[in-house]
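Researcher: Here's the sequence for the chain we discussed earlier.
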Amino acid sequence: MDMKENIKNLLESEEVSNYKISKETGIAQTTLSDYASGKSKIGNMKLDHALKLYEFYLSHKDEV
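Model: Thanks. This is the structure I predict for it:
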């Protein structure tokens, strides 16, 4: 899987809450919800957000 797909799976996961992701990455829960719902496109997210979410995914992929 590629980085974009991994981030999408993370944001759609029922095992990991947006609250937990937000606390560990510093990305606002509303921003995460916008990405998860499609209101904001994952492909257009800030590089900083993409890197933080991908790092979070890599360290928690067993939970996703």
